[in-house]
Amino acid sequence: xxxxxxxxxxxxCRSGKGGRGSMHLHRAKYQPNGxxxxxxxxxxxxxxxxxxxxxWTLLHLRYERHAFAQNGQNGGKDLRHGSDGADxxxxxxxxxxxxxxxxxxxxxDVTEDGQVVMLLQGGRGGRGNWHFRSATNQTPRYAQPGxxxxxxxxxxxLKLLADVGLVGFPNAGKSTLLSTLSSARPKIAGYPFTxxxxxxxxxxxxxxxSFVMADIPGIIKGASEGRGLGLRFLRHIERNSILLFxxxxxxxxxxxEYEVLLEELxxxxxxxxxxxxxxxxxxxxxxxxxLIEMLRExxxxxxxxxxxxxxxxKGLQELKDKIWEALNSESMKIASMTGxxxxxxxxxxxxxxxxxxxxxEPDWExxxxxxxxxxxxxxxxxxxxxxxxxx
Length: 391
What we know:
six-stranded mixed beta sheet, about 20% strand, 2 domains, five-stranded mixed beta sheet, alpha/beta, Spo0b-associated Gtp-binding Protein, Chain: A, rod-shaped, Rossmann fold
């Protein structure tokens, strides 16, 4: 069964072209030389991204792979201005990032509900011949054409917004912890890679407080190079305020596994190492107190460490207290006020983008309007039209 969680789509965007200015000479009874009265063309429509908190996935864009704005209308006689083309708004969930599909260049980021970001600007409308009248040229027989449209192939990526992101190898107990602390029900099984899509859960804390926890598929060594499922889902922990590293207690070298996870994050995005980190040693119901004390001496001393067991409900309250303390720390408040915790987006490699959409084909015909069908207003005479550059 195909999942409803879609976090990666490719859309072809096109703004509207500007309408042509009108080349018209006024003709009326008793006014044989009325002079120029051609109006300006309308502006072409823009293409925008707009954040919408009612969406949590890009599923609604999977089968709508094009976004076209309307063209501006041509100007008319009697100084009539052509109507502007309608803008095109692409509704996206908060946390969506746009990249150029051809070059991988970062374009924009939508993080708030109602936030509007322009992707493509519509062409300006051309000026009518009324603007070019002068004492030496009282009947200009030319007008400006409208500016052309802009086209761009865009890739939209969704990066989940959560307070805490779970980082660990497959079968580290991430899904079990999320299902125990929240009402989320991710798939849990005894084999690796049971989690194929990110899951969000709201964790209740003391005094009616809560925070959001995100579970992503397990990371393996080499995930930053495309191995396993890590490359497609590592981006979901980029926006998390705190990274909760989870290593099973029955691992031979807990410290080494933590360093491997940390190295994969550094290779994917070095800015992620500046986030606050907490290490949770899971499945500690298999360990006795003496072994736990021995393991504490081998664990990193530069971050909080908690021994937990989601099955035995051991250490969970201590873990939530440490997470809540980190979320409300002074460093976190200063970062949120100064914008220091903002995500620094990097350009994507075009080779990776092309590989992800190697089987993608456009689902529309590139039918463009016929410019020869323009209706240039003139009564009984036909005038030659000359293109005029902006002055």
